[in-house]
Each structure stands twice: as structure tokens, then as C-alpha cells.
Amino acid sequence: MTRVLITAFEPFDRWSENSSWLALLELTRSLPEAPKVVTRRYPVHFAKAKERLSEDLAADYDFALHLGQSSQTGRIELEAIGLNVGGEPGQSPDQFQSLIPGGPAAYRTALPLARWASLIREDGIPAQVSYHAGTYLCNAVLYLSQHVAAEKKLKTRSTFIHLPLAPQQVLGERQNWPTLPSEMCARGIRKILEELGRE
Q1: What is the pLDDT of residue 179?
Q2: What is the pTM of this model?
Q3: What separation in angstroms does the CA of 13 have from each of 16, 18, 27, 173, 188?
Q4: Which spans in 28-173 are helix H?
Q5: How many CA atoms are closer than 13 Å to the CA of 111, on its beta-carbon side?
Q6: CATH number of the domain that 185 lies in?
Q7: 66, 77, 79, 185: which is the annotated catalytic residue?
Q8: Do residues 196 and 182 make contact, with C-beta atoms less than 8 angstroms apart?
Q9: Is 79 part of the annotated catalytic residue set?
Q10: What stretches in the chain show pLDDT beneath 70?
């Protein structure tokens, strides 16, 4: 059976919850019969997340779907490209470092993101392909996932999926943050899993 690794992140910065983990919890309440899914929650820390990711990918999954939170979007964003660059929040771009010194400048996923986005939209959930996952940990996990697979000759194909904040995260906020319910995010991911189960 096809095996899929799905990762999410723990809370970080000002947020007491992480929408990626909330969506993953919701997803596990109604998983499709196939594929077989393994879930992980990663720390918001470059070195620790990299170590955990390398350990998990050693199991040579067929696919890896990495989930993360974005407070800047109101739709599911399927990330196509991971860049070999990373920096901490608050750093200026000239302080950023290569994730893998001497590694490829970028990796582009071979997964059919445009088709997936279309299927998710057909289910009434806003979704689109994105070509810039930022320069923080979300981008790092996307890049490193593909780099580890290439270096170790794994079959794993991966992408990163940015999810909006969940409505309950912004209840006490004065700023008008875009949100999407965790249930809708989980339905979108389930659509992808159903496609992967047919592979």
C-alpha cells in the first residue's frame, strides 16, 4: 500500500496553537482507507526539525506532505519550490544562510499541484499553487525533504502545504487576520490523500 508521511508544526511566535496541527488532528478523524498515513509534529527550530525530518524520511515513504501555518493567506497554498536559503524572523536577507552549503539552489516538486488545487476548489475550498514558501522553516522543510530524498536516492516525492489560521486562533485579535476552518483544511488534504491512494 502507498505510504504517506504528513508533518505539521507545534505552536510558535504569538500563536498558542498552530493551524497545521489543528488541521492534521481534524484529518485523522476521517482518514481514507488508502493510503497508509503516518503523522508527525515538528518543533519550530531549524536544527531539530532537520534532524527529525531526516530520521522520518529514512523510512522511504512514497509521498511526504508537509503542513505549515501562514497568517497571510485565506486559502490552502500548495508550494511548488523550495529554496536553498533560510533565516530567522527578524533577520535581514543579507544575514540568511544556505540550508545546504553547495546544494542545489532550489528544488521543484514533481507532484501535480495544479490538479490538486483544482480538485480542492471543486469541493468548495479555496486553494492555489504558490511559488514561494518564504525563507523560514516552511521553505526549509520543503527544500530539505527533497534534498534528503535526492541524496539518499529515496522514492519519496514531497510538497509543502500552507494553511491559513483557524478561526479560533484569532478570536481575541484586533487585527483582521484571514482564516479558514480546520475542517475545510482537512477536507482539502483528504482530497490529496484520495488521489495518492489511487497511485
Answers
A1: 98
A2: 0.96
A3: 8, 10, 24, 14, 26
A4: 46-57, 113-122, 137-151
A5: 28
A6: 3.40.630.20
A7: 79
A8: no
A9: yes
A10: none
pLDDT in tens, 40-94: 999 999 999 999 999 999 999 999 999 999 999 999 999 999 999 988 777 788 8
Cβ(113)–Cβ(82) under 8 Å? no
What residue numbers bound the domain in which 190 lies? 3-197
The pLDDT value given to residue 135 = 84
Active site residue 51: no
DSSP H helices in the chain: 19-27, 46-57, 113-122, 137-151, 182-197
Q: How many domains does the chain have?
A: 1
Residue whose C-alpha cell reads 497554498 in the numeric block:
77
To the query of whether residue 77 is one of the catalytic residues in this protein, the response is no
The catalytically annotated residue of 26, 66, 147, 162 is 162
Is 116 within 8 Å of 63 (Cβ atoms)?
Answer: no
Catalytic residue among 138, 151, 185, 194: 138
Going by C-alpha positions, the residue among 130, 138, 121, 133 that lies closest to residue 184 is: 121
d(CA 5, CA 25): 14
Residue with cell 500552507: 162
In order of 52, 59, 136, 162, 174, the CA distances from 147 in angstroms are 14, 15, 16, 20, 40
d(CA 23, CA 105): 31
Q: Cell for 95?
A: 544575514
